[in-house]
Design goal:
The structure is a single chain. The chain is built from 4 helices and 6 strands, in the order H-H-H-E-H-E-E-E-E-E. The protein has about 150 residues and is of the alpha+beta class. Strand 4 and strand 5 form a beta hairpin. Helix 1 runs parallel beside helix 3. The radius of gyration is 20 Å and the shape is elongated. The chain starts with 6 loop residues before the first helix and ends in a 13-residue tail after the last strand. About 15% of the residues are buried.
């Protein structure tokens, strides 16, 4: 389910949380700080409703991600998909840091192969949406449906 709420509606909701003495100044700051960051504004709105961010993965989890959702220009996708660094064509990545308020909430690291079979380590941040599953729970994944 997806509910769309405009920035103005979010700001109106958040505005009710502050005392009258400070409301206008606080709202000016919020509008300026969040004007170009809809993700942060949606987090603020959810928090105003008592909804905390819930993420499915934690630090040290091994997760699976499609190679095309990663920095695939740095490595050979076909070689890596068939290597020990992949499972059913999905790249095995280690979650090294979680930031529940960031859009790209997982800092990950993974190994991949360049076209000369050189092993490289890549670090990047990714969003919740592109993580397919925990590696340990992957046996039930219908990979053909993912590509």
């Amino acid at each position: 389910m997806k509910i769309e709420i405009s920035n103005i509606e979010i700001i109106q909701r958040v505005k009710t949380l502050f005392k009258d003495d400070y409301r206008d100044e606080v709202m000016e700051v919020i509008e300026e700080v969040f004007k170009d960051n809809e993700h942060a504004l949606s987090i603020l709105f959810k928090l105003s409703l008592g909804i905390k961010p819930v993420l499915n993965y934690q630090e040290k989890d091994d997760v699976l991600i499609k190679p095309y959702d990663l920095q695939s220009w740095k490595f050979d996708k076909q070689l890596t998909e068939k290597s020990e660094f992949a499972y059913k064509g999905l790249i095995i990545c280690k979650v090294v840091k979680v930031n529940k308020y960031a859009k790209e909430c997982y800092d990950i690291t993974y190994k991949a192969l360049k076209n000369d079979n050189e092993v490289i380590v890549i670090n990047q941040s990714v969003s919740e949406e592109i993580v397919i599953a925990l590696h340990e729970n992957a046996e039930n994944i219908a990979v053909d449906d993912l590509f």
